């Protein structure tokens, strides 16, 4: 596992060791000691499957740390700092396949778009799910996220998220 810092403090891009074999490949997606070294004590592992490309979820900032990696397919991840700090509103994007993971600290917004059909995405978290979250508009021009798929599918709830400017106003 090779860890690389990003421009958003605390967000880490992780290169995973994927070992090809005659049947496909093998990767160690979870190793308690290695994740503890990043400051994460996993309490829940979630898996989401998406049949089509262009499915978008987010931008959500939850009160838990996340470790995310696809086990099949590819995703485009857009990470937005929604913490009250000097990097509030900073965006960084990544395309992830099974050989990569992201570590996203609590209160940093995360979203993703499936780039390929039949994508399976794993989420490890260090707190059990709760409805508490901060969200921002997926298509806010201030964020300038260029989604990689033309036809997108997203929830009505995500479509109704406030702009970054509105979130800033609410916090002032």
TrEMBL record:
Recorded GO MF terms: dTDP-4-dehydrorhamnose 3,5-epimerase activity
Stored InterPro entries: RmlC-like, RmlC-like_jellyroll, RmlC_Cupin_sf
Source species, domain of life: Bacteria
Site (Participates in a stacking interaction with the thymidine ring of dTDP-4-oxo-6-deoxyglucose): 129
GO biological process: dTDP-rhamnose biosynthetic process; polysaccharide biosynthetic process
GO CC annotation, single: cytosol
Family from the record: Belongs to the dTDP-4-dehydrorhamnose 3,5-epimerase family.
Family annotation (PANTHER family): DTDP-6-DEOXY-D-GLUCOSE-3,5 EPIMERASE (PTHR21047), THYMIDINE DIPHOSPHO-4-KETO-RHAMNOSE 3,5-EPIMERASE (PTHR21047:SF2)
Name assigned to this protein: dTDP-4-dehydrorhamnose 3,5-epimerase
């Amino acid at each position: 596992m090779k860890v690389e810092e990003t421009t958003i403090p605390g967000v880490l891009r992780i290169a995973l060791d994927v070992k090809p074999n005659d049947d496909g490949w093998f990767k160690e997606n979870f190793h308690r000691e290695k994740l503890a070294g990043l400051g994460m004590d996993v309490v829940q592992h979630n898996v989401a499957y998406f049949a089509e490309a262009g499915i978008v979820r987010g931008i959500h900032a939850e009160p838990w740390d996340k470790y995310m990696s696809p086990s099949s397919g590819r995703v485009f991840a857009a990470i937005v700092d929604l913490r009250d700090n000097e990097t509030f509103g900073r965006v960084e994007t990544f395309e992830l396949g099974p050989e990569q993971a992201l570590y996203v600290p609590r209160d940093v917004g995360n979203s993703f778009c499936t780039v390929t059909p039949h994508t399976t995405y794993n989420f490890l978290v260090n707190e059990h799910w709760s409805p508490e979250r901060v969200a921002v508009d997926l298509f806010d021009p201030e964020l300038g996220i260029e989604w990689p798929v033309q036809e997108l599918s997203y929830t009505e709830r995500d479509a109704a998220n406030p702009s970054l400017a509105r979130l800033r106003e609410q916090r002032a």
